[in-house]
């Protein structure tokens, strides 16, 4: 059975050229320590998705995150500080449209329901956007008699267009 | 102020060529009756996003939906039955990548967090995808001292890859 | 001489299919009345760029804007209200990359200086973005012995990435 | 907090293949010396954006710039002269459309307001373009009770189309 | 004659950068042992296509698969476990549209008959999709007086769209 | 429930510009007569997919097909002869990649398993391709305790590369 | 022989949707009057290429041009003034890359010699560009024993990059 | 001032993967010897653009060119002969559309004036193309009170379409 | 059987927007008269492919062609003269890459054998190209015991690159 | 003169990443031995184009081909057997559309005459395609008083569409 068999996420070699060097360092230590993002998130006091995003170079590590990661993953703190210095350069991991079936499904939701979301959001909030920056997201697992369900929550600040 | 001022969502003329003819019929009646998707959703007993998707031709109307829409919008039932016959041909409303800023933000979330979602979902559920078909979604509004927050929930059945 | 000879901006017929029907109504009245965006902006109490964006369907008209436009352009107010109802569907006017030489130059500035802007903004403000929604922009004209200079100012709220 | 915490901009390894070798030399020395572009700009007597552009290979260094950079960054002058010889080959750092959220916002401004800028510029200046070559740009930070604001100024010579 | 002359499939060097490192390990051992996917499939108790997909990093190996591959291919089990750890990152091997003539023909079938499949599937099953995840596929060879025929069977669970 | 509720496939108005005029004629008559492709296939003695392809202009009608369609759909035979004259111009109905979720799943199968199919086909048949011309395909429905399964069979002549 | 047989350039119907309405007016009158661009250029005192560009909506007509065109082509002056009002919206006539063989050859020259032009221009003029705005171009015909030669001259102001 | 300060054109490291190995050899020697293309062109008796094209692998070196380059640049003749053997594989240096601002301007000229060139060339020469093969080009510098002007001449054989 | 059953080629309605109006006129008359391109070619004294290209607006009609077409197809000569005036605007009929299976096969030959053709042509003729302008092409049918064979001949003048 | 001066085709370094490793081995030996494809074709008893395609990894070598290549090129037979094992992965050498001018001309022929070929082939053969698999091609050189002519012959089996 190909189920949730304690297998942890690792870094596929073919994705490396699109990632900052910190991704290799972090994922290798994660593999060595055999840690899930759940365990890492607990240590960092952050959401699992945020931790995974940090590993892929899509989110920023605070000084405290670096200290925690250094402890948990046995990576010298100054090496982490150096590799995680600067500012994330986001958005380069993905093909357009996404080719990975799991990620494509998320894209397909936007593709099919994009205008429906817009219509409902505009009616509920007015002219503006849901911020993807002042934003958080999480994944939850629900199970019922029909099987498992993934529940992804997106929560963003509503930003009305400025009048000028 | 460009806020939630009871303005309802209508159909922009430049989107018409990408939509089935039912979209024009439905949106014109909605405008005539000055109804929000919230009111329509209440009548149909469905989520607002599902109703909006139905208007944009991205979801299917059941015979009961058609009856309810006919009553609520004063459209002859046989006209609705005819225009909503057949099966939705989904996915054509959107540019790739989306150009509309509100929809782009949703796409950007997939672009930035796609691999993070995948890593966490794989660790939590195993090898598979979150279905975008056995799936539901809704929008909620939260307000706190910082302003309004849009909360979008995506809930999909987990489908493990078959072994063969 | 092809200078600023009181020629006003009108709507090219080949752009019409990408625009909402309000654009045709507004531009035709503008041509009839021979009004510049400067004159329109004075009446509406808004920036010229915002007025032009409103004409192209890229910004929203407030009820007061509609009243003012109706008066200034001699368009029945209910016609304007109907055509400008709903929410702008932005971003569809442009080719990617832009083909129009004037607009291409703006794109080229982003293309050449994009990472430089990012580096300086990150150092000055931290990890985040300059909002294009809580945002205003204006154009000014300066003249010196070398000729005319266009000065475009972009002013956006800084949005730091949420920690989650 | 992910604020302006004296973190300096460094070079992400995944961007290196799109940059001239000088970018690596300059950014490594910048990191070693822990210098902001503000400090570098002061030394060179240039705008911060111009300095960052020079680091990314998007602007040219004058002999005096090279001397100043050599002193400030402790890089042998002849090495800098050799690596910065020749002429910049601009425009290759960016995806099209930009994927990085911060840079995308700048692009989105062009996408949404492009035709509005064109209409207003044509009315103010006639038939022509704002030069992106005889051009300067700068970033300023403003703070009010609502938070921080980024102000980007673009200033370009107006070039009327030649009649021939 | 360039027929089925016991030549086995090997890995072309130009495809390597798009594949996980496990692909190189597995294909090299396959070449060394001179094994067809038929022989490998027999050992693993899986379909040939599934085995080939596993080699290309498009399907997941169970612990038992790894044990069997280790025995059959003389690869140390822990090396295989390490290289096949994590979750497949699917979909990156192919150009869009496919350039390889054999694979293009499969794509062409979708291109030409896509809407015909949709119409017939909708009529037979209702509004939904055939799953590509709860899915299996196999290849059979038939021979008659006209020559050889390839028969590819695709079998997927029907997933009706959820009503919400 | 959105199941196989005797709803027949009709032609969406937004697809019309990509289709020959015969598609409109045929689908309108099909809707009028409320016929499934199953019924049409029985009359014509062809596979359902072939009939649907014929309706979409992706397959050719023989003189006998035209006679049968004329009788079944009450369309004057000479009108059908005229509209179905000439040769199909195939392949234009689809976006690349397909946006419709049902059709995308078929494409995804090619995307994920393309090289696996090639490897197994080459080992079984030698150097060549499976013809998409000397080719047939059909859809079958299977039902077990888990639900419905769609089974698509592709059967093509194997064409070895000529030696020259 | 398909030589320079006094055939004049007319407007192909399939290009019309990409052009402003003035193009149709001008080309129809040109056809009616059977005038070459040489004759038109003589009347207007402009280069032939500039005249053709004006017809295609790629250059601006001065008031005097409009008067001359009105006389030469027997088009009411106020109709021309109205259709040629506003500012050219350039660049939309062409596919990318150009498909028309004659235009492709011009593009191919840029494709093959682009970097060579840049290297020589940089060495001769420094860091900058040749303006395509402060610019003129003309076509000449030379004939020798080998046949006819087309000579296209591009003359643009050199614009050095501003230091800032 | 960033003017024509005797800086010679060198090879940017990021362009190397798109060029044949001869480009590296030639540009390194050019840098070592500090030679302009003007000097090289004088030695070879060819146009500067042709010499630069030769360096970028876009033109072919004759045996005499190789001898001259060997002498001028102090490169062993057999090394040059080996690296310049075979036939140029042209056209790969450029992005589409070009991103480099200088080269983009040349492309923009084709984009804006392409159909105008075609109309005038057809009227002057008949149905055919200007050859980009039986072709030469050169750059000249003119200076007047307004500054410097770049003059690029394209001269190609006119090829009429064959009648068949 | 779907063989060469005296069916003539007609114009599919979905291709019309990409073609000049003459294509509609010519194909309609061809259908009315039930003429093959073989018959038309005999009348015009041209190759069948050239005649078909003329119908699709990809080749030019001489005055004598127009006279012959007028007689053969019963189209008033002045109507043909008017619709066929001007110069062909070639290359717009095709998708890139071609989607039509028959045309894709021709493209695939270029895709697979392109570099092989180049290598052999360079060795046989030197540095240059085979002209697609001073060019003719024809189709022949051969039949042997294995079935029918299509033989397409391309014959183009060799154009060596000019030395300059 | 840049004519057919006994220069042989070699492998450009920038094409290597798109080719199997066998291409490097074969082209290096060809250069060492200074052999044309004409000489190689004579040894192998195959067409020159087929030999070049084999070198570029676009055609398959038979055991006898390998033996002959080993003898002619002095490459150990087992090395060739190993590098040429497996099945060609075709189609990856080319840009889309092709940038190389010689190859572009071949593509342009398909682009301009594609529908003309289709119309004539359909009329001559019925509904089907010319196979690019059961296919051969050759290049011949003709010389007359006007110069050299390249004649490319494409010969493919006609495959009628199956009726199903």
TrEMBL record, chains A, B, C, D, E, F, G, H, I, J:
SMART domains: Cyanate_lyase. Residues 92-164 form the Cyanate lyase C-terminal domain. One of its GO terms (molecular function) is cyanate hydratase activity. CDD domains: Cyanase_C (cd00559). It catalyses: cyanate + hydrogencarbonate + 3 H(+) = NH4(+) + 2 CO2. It comes from the Eukaryota. The keyword Ribosomal protein does not apply. The active site is at residues 105, 108, 131. Its EC number is 4.2.1.104. Keywords: Lyase. SUPFAM superfamilies: Cyanase C-terminal domain, lambda repressor-like DNA-binding domains. The keyword Lyase applies. Belongs to the cyanase family. Catalyzes the reaction of cyanate with bicarbonate to produce ammonia and carbon dioxide. This is Cyanate hydratase. The gene is cyn1.
